[in-house]
């Protein structure tokens, strides 16, 4: 398995998975997922709650070990070079997971220190991140007192302080208003333009349009893969939302129900 | 390894803002000191004593007088009916009874050891133990004087060794002198265990542990960064409480404070390890609190802190050997009161060290395995 995957390793790939699988008991949360994410790409993982997005990302970060298959991140086998991989990635978890009782500045300083940055470079980097994420006015605020949108910015800040070439953002825009989501995606694109590879999960289907390429997941499996434009063309649809519905009807095996948008918000899946 | 410094600093930043934890660290020990100094140290005096004189001799009357001449006992009645004592005790009119058997004087004169009986109301175990100690003391003094005065050929009846010990090292049987060193042990158990357990489960509960696990931090750095702050705090606590005990409460320390500090460090392996262990078997801070309290109460009860181990039933007595706190309790009391040195403490130091190493390494292994 490892040999075969090593043979298929291509230059320019930031992430590659081969038949990556994770079981919890007899339940299969992620099933034989094979993906390739190019350097500098914004790669979207879409799917309803429970599709396996978080489980997949946690395996790529080395937080969970795969039941089968393999994962390469930044050219390194996650199973073997966990620590080296962790130096090259940033991870923003689905749940806000910074210290609520530390200030914005203390949180950033702490994560900088943990990643081995200190002294003057740390202070410089701190100012850069505060400016980039417009967190300056909040630097003395406790993380728990921040508005949700700014909490998510702080989480991004802590994940990118050490300038990792690859960033995993798990539902970074969930729960915040459309305007804040929009500006968060602007941040994501600025990072991508600067050469960072980003893997972003979301259950907002319209956010697919912000990604260079997407993988649509359902019940642990990738059911579509490609650029949003190509996927729409292939299926003759107007939106990714429609592609998704079409795929599910064709599949027939899915238990997922037709999503509705009672709030009027377009394309909210799952949740 | 310098990442550990950032972990330690972060921990202190959090502690500074955490009111419950600050309470556990500073208020609880202070309250306990105050309580121990004021409530528990009211010395046992004027124990209500009934004298059951079945001998009615010159010497038996002299012995009764010896008891009534101290402020330790107040003789509330004379009787010749032993059977009347239990009902008097139940009515709280009598706390102790001294039974002088027939033939007391004649046996003493013949140089034999007459048996005396001392009945003590055991409902209040501490008072009972202390009253018995007083009784032994008065008796020994009585016998010594008798021997000196009465006859050169009257052999001195054998004295119990325990008695000598009490008279030497804590002549007033001051419970303050006895209890406050125990408090030091209790604090070196409660603080590290509770805080370590809570701080790990809090990180797990809040998801911050997951965030730490995607950093290049190694597991031993993570552990060190967590345990060092609580080691420092526990040490500060030890210093503050010991200083307060000596300066404010006038507790006399016979032994070496350096030895105390060194052995305290050894004991902290046990309690920090237990805290870590608790965090690996619990999911939430609430659960951790519950499990930690359960362990702490068990350890306190079995340590001889409240209930003297010699007063325990055999089964419980055996159970105390499983309590690592038991050994440190004995060590601290010996160092405070007897000024014992390391060699004489070894029978307690060795099992304590074994417990510490075993608990600490098991918890570390379990913790690492859990993080996968
Ligand atoms: N630790 C776990 N133990 C058991 N089941 C899990 C665990 N983590 C996730 N799952 C299950 O795996 C499935 C996928 O979960 P997840 O990856 O979180 O989905 P998503 O992020 O797409 O919402 C869900 O059905 C979830 O209940
Ligand atoms: Mg998820």
Count of helical regions of chain B:
15
Could you tell me which chain pair has the largest interface and how many residues each side has?
Answer: A-B, 30 and 24 residues
Give helix and strand order of chain B, one letter per element, not per position.
Answer: HHEHEHEHEHHHHHHHHHH
Shape of chain B: elongated
Number of domains of chain B: 2
Number of contiguous helices of chain A: 9
Give unreliable regions of chain A as ranges: 1-9, 251-271
Bin the strand percentage of chain A.
15-25%
Cα-based radius of gyration of chain B, to the nearest Å = 26 Å
User: Strands of the biggest beta sheet of chain A: in what spatial order?
Assistant: 6-7-8-3-9-10
Helix content of chain B: 55-70%
How would a crystallographer describe the biggest sheet of chain B? 4 strands, mixed
Q: Which class of the domain at 3-88 and 164-249 in chain A in CATH terms?
A: Alpha Beta
Please summarize what this structure is.
Chain A has helices at residues 2-8, 53-60, 82-88, 104-114, 119-132, 148-160, 178-193, 228-235, 240-251; strands at residues 13-24, 27-38, 42-46, 68-73, 76-77, 89-92, 166-170, 197-202, 213-218, 221-226. Chain A has 271 residues and is an alpha/beta fold. By secondary structure, chain B is an alpha/beta fold.
Can you walk through the features of this model?
The complex is a heterodimer of chains A (271) and B (372). Chain A is built from nine helices and ten strands. In chain A, helix 4 (104-114) runs parallel beside helix 6 (148-160) and helix 8 packs across helix 9 (240-251). The two termini of chain A are 36 Å apart. Chain A has a domain at 3-88 and 164-249: Rossmann fold. Chain A has helices at residues 2-8, 53-60, 82-88, 104-114, 119-132, 148-160, 178-193, 228-235, 240-251, and strands at residues 13-24, 27-38, 42-46, 68-73, 76-77, 89-92, 166-170, 197-202, 213-218, 221-226. Chain B is an alpha/beta fold. Chain B has two domains: 2-40 and 174-369, no CATH class; 47-154, abc type-2 transporter like domain (abc type-2 transporter like fold, 3-Layer(aba) Sandwich), CATH 3.40.1710. Chain B is 68% helix and 6% strand. The longest helix of chain B is centred in the middle third of the chain and has 32 residues, at 175-206. The radius of gyration of chain B is 26 Å and the shape is elongated. Chain B starts with a helix and ends with a helix. Classes of the chains: A alpha/beta (271), B alpha/beta (372). Chains A and B meet through helix 3 and helix 4 of A and helix 1 and helix 9 of B. Bound molecules: adenosine-5'-diphosphate and magnesium ion. Magnesium ion binds next to helix 2 of chain A. Magnesium ion binds at residues 53-54, 94, 170-171 of chain A.
């Amino acid at each position: 398995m490892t040999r075969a995957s090593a043979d298929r390793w291509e230059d320019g790939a930031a992430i590659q998975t081969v038949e990556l699988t994770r079981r919890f008991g007899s339940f299969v949360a992620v099933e034989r997922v094979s993906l390739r994410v190019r350097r500098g790409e914004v790669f979207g993982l879409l799917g309803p709650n429970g599709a396996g997005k978080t489980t997949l990302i946690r395996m790529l970060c080395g937080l969970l070990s795969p039941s089968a298959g393999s994962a390469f991140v930044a050219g390194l086998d996650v199973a073997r070079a966990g620590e080296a991989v962790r130096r090259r990635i940033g991870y923003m978890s689905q749940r806000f997971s910074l210290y609520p009782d530390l200030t914005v500045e203390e949180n950033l300083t702490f994560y900088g220190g943990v990643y081995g940055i200190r002294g003057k470079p740390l202070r410089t980097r701190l100012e850069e991140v505060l400016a980039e994420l417009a967190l300056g006015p909040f630097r003395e605020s406790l993380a728990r007192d921040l508005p949700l949108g700014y909490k998510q910015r702080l989480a991004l800040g802590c994940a990118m302080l050490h300038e990792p070439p690859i960033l995993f953002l798990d539902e970074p825009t969930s729960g915040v208003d459309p305007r804040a989501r929009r500006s968060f995606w602007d941040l994501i694109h600025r990072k991508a333009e600067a050469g960072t590879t980003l893997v972003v999960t979301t259950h907002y289907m319209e956010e697919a349009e912000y990604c260079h390429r997407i993988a649509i997941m359902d019940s642990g499996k990738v059911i579509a893969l490609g650029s949003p434009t190509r996927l729409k063309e292939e299926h003759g649809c107007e939106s990714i939302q429609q592609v998704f519905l079409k795929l599910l009807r064709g599949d027939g095996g899915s238990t997922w129900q037709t999503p509705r948008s009672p709030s009027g918000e377009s394309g909210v899946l799952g949740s | 390894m310098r990442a550990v410094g950032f972990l330690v600093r972060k921990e202190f930043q959090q502690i500074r803002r955490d009111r419950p934890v600050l309470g556990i660290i500073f208020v609880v020990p202070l309250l306990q000191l105050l309580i121990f100094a004021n409530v528990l140290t009211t010395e046992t005096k004027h124990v209500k004593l009934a004298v059951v004189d079945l001998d009615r001799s010159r010497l038996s009357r002299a012995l009764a007088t010896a008891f009534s001449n101290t402020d330790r006992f107040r003789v509330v009645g004379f009787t010749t009916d032993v059977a009347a004592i239990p009902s008097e005790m139940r009515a709280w009119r009598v706390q102790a009874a001294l039974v002088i058997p027939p033939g007391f004087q004649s046996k003493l004169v013949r140089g034999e050891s007459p048996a005396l009986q001392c009945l003590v109301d055991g409902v209040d175990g501490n008072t009972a133990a202390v009253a018995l100690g007083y009784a032994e003391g008065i008796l020994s003094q009585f016998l010594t004087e008798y021997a000196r005065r009465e006859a050169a050929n009257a052999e001195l009846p054998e004295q119990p060794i325990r008695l000598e010990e009490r008279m030497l090292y804590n002549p007033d049987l001051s419970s303050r002198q006895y209890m406050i060193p125990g408090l030091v042990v209790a604090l070196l158990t409660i603080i590290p265990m509770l805080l370590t357990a809570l701080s790990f489960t809090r990180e797990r509960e809040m998801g911050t542990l997951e965030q730490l696990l995607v950093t290049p931090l190694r597991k031993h750095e993570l552990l060190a960064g967590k345990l060092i702050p609580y080691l420092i705090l526990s040490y500060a606590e030890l210093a503050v409480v010991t200083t307060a005990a000596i300066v404010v409460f006038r507790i006399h320390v016979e032994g070496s404070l350096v030895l105390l500090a060194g052995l305290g460090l050894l004991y902290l392996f046990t309690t920090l390890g237990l805290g870590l262990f608790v965090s690996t078997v619990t999911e939430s801070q609430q659960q951790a609190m519950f499990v930690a309290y359960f362990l702490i109460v068990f350890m306190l009860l079995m340590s001889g802190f409240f209930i003297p181990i010699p007063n325990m039933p055999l089964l419980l007595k055996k159970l105390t050997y499983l309590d690592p706190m038991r050994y440190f309790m004995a060590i601290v009391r010996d160092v405070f009161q007897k000024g014992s040195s390391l060699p004489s403490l070894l029978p307690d130091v060795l099992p304590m060290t074994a417990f510490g190493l075993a608990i600490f390494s098991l918890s570390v292994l379990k913790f690492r395995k859990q993080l996968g």
